[in-house]
Amino acid sequence: MRRTAFAAVLSACALFAGACADDHGAPAANPAAASSSDSTAPAASGAAQPAGEQDCSKQGWPRPLPNFQGKLLGDTVVGDALCFAITSVTSSDGKDVMHDPAAATTPWTVTGQQPAAGTPVTANTPVRLTVRAR
Predict the structure, then answer these.
(1) Nearest CA to 74 among 19, 128, 122, 2?
(2) How far is 130 from 8, CA to CA, in rounded Å?
(3) Is 30 within 8 Å of 78 (Cβ atoms)?
(4) What are the residue ranges in the chain where pLDDT is below 70?
(5) Using CA atoms, how far apart are residues 29 and 38, in angstroms rounded to an integer?
(6) How far apart are CA 74 and CA 7, in angstroms?
(7) Quick one: which of 61, 109, 49, 111 has its CA closest to 85?
(8) What is the pLDDT of residue 59?
(9) Residue 109 DSSP class
(10) Is 88 exposed, middle or buried (0-12, 13-18, 19+ CB in 10 A)?
(11) CB 3.0-4.6 Å disulfide test: which of 25, 50, 69, 77 passes with 124?
(12) Does residue 115 contact residue 125 with C-beta atoms inside 8 Å?
């Protein structure tokens, strides 16, 4: 059950990371709003936002990049990293975890990040994560 849930979360995050930028390069408030002409408008449905989802357009940019090291990848990409442009997730041996559907069934821990934690970044600054299997 845990692996299935993690696979679903990681797959959704990979899709979200590729489609969450609006026409100006800033992250949209949510994936549904990405296709809207006004990405800062609230979601059309009255449903509550998923846990960890934030209105990224209302945050001050640039802002310091959080320290993701030691955290579970699945929790990171739907929590602290949601408003940052995660462009790659690779294992220490170079495996592309972000775009490999088979990797979605493995629990990953973040072991490195570029830029370094605390570095001021904009919403569209590329962030690369390195992970290891738990």
Answers:
(1) 2
(2) 20
(3) no
(4) 1-54
(5) 10
(6) 9
(7) 61
(8) 87
(9) E
(10) middle
(11) 25
(12) yes
